[in-house]
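ok new one. same drill as before - structure tokens go in, u give me an amino acid for every spot. 134 of them this time. try not to just spam alanines like last time pls lmao
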């Protein structure tokens, strides 16, 4: 092998390590990370049979209006501990503006939930788009 072309692979052992690394990397499970506009979020949720619509706002915020059929699990310091009963189905998560739902989505993905979709801009953007709340 020409050392000028591939200087880092100077022996079979090194080559095996690189091949193993590349194989593991290529075969690693990919988690779906998607931030969707309110309109696309609504369309995709409606088209996803059995998906979970997750509202991570406080109870006080939910009482001011929520998306129809949403399950409320408040995002707080113990959020990860509240997920035990949540089924592993597609999850569409939202909050007030998109900050807490992004953090919640990261935790959901860490816990093995996939796919997880976030609403860009949260319920504020939903309302601005003229979409219905209950």
């Amino acid at each position: 092998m020409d050392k000028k072309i591939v200087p880092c692979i100077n022996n079979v052992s090194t080559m095996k390590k690189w091949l193993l690394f590349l194989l593991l990397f290529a075969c690693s499970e990919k988690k779906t990370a998607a931030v969707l506009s309110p309109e696309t979020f609504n369309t995709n949720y409606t088209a996803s049979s059995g998906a979970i619509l997750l509202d991570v706002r406080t109870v006080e915020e939910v009482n001011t209006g929520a998306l129809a059929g949403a399950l409320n699990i408040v995002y707080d310091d113990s959020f990860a501990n509240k997920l035990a009963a949540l089924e592993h189905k597609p999850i569409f998560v939202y909050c007030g503006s998109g900050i807490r739902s992004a953090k919640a989505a990261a935790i959901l993905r860490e816990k093995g939930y996939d796919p997880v979709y976030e609403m860009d801009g949260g319920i504020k953007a939903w309302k601005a788009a003229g979409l219905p709340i209950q």
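Helices lie at 12-27, 38-47, 59-62, 99-110, 122-128. and btw The first helix runs from residue 12 to 27.
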